[in-house]
Amino acid sequence: MAKVQIGDSLYTKNKIFPDYKAEPGQKALVQIHGMFTEASVTLIALLTATRLLRKGFETSILLYGPCGVLAASATKGYPRVGDEFYPGHLAHTQRLQQFMKEGGKVYLCQFGLGAVGFREEDLLEGVVAFDPLDTLDLALEHYKAGAFIMGTWM
């Protein structure tokens, strides 16, 4: 058996489903409720939201819970704001910024914000904070529009 080299493919291409794209006007909502210890699930949800956006869906992210608040924080970094202390330290923030740059909308529950001691002024530009009662209504708005809704709950 030959030794594996960097760049070698480990698997045969086995994509079995069509590469679906959104029809004009279709929406998607990705709900991300995360805790500090489950950050990888939040990162995958952020990457999925960006993929939905790139497939043509009008995509929104709902952040609630401590990990969502930290992802949307504009005050992270070390030793200065914006400095990445180690590779991946600011991955959530960078993914959110890219998502919004590409036209995605980000909403954040104020309860989560207050629960971890942040203010609206501490959020990334473009993140919209709202009353906790709007969490359900945002989901219902997307449901009524026939949107694809993906929820992550950890």
UniProtKB/TrEMBL annotation:
InterPro entries: DsrEFH-like, MSMEG0572. SUPFAM superfamilies: DsrEFH-like (SSF75169). It comes from the Bacteria. NCBIfam families: MSMEG_0572_fam. This is MSMEG_0572 family protein. It comes from Desulfitobacterium chlororespirans DSM 11544.
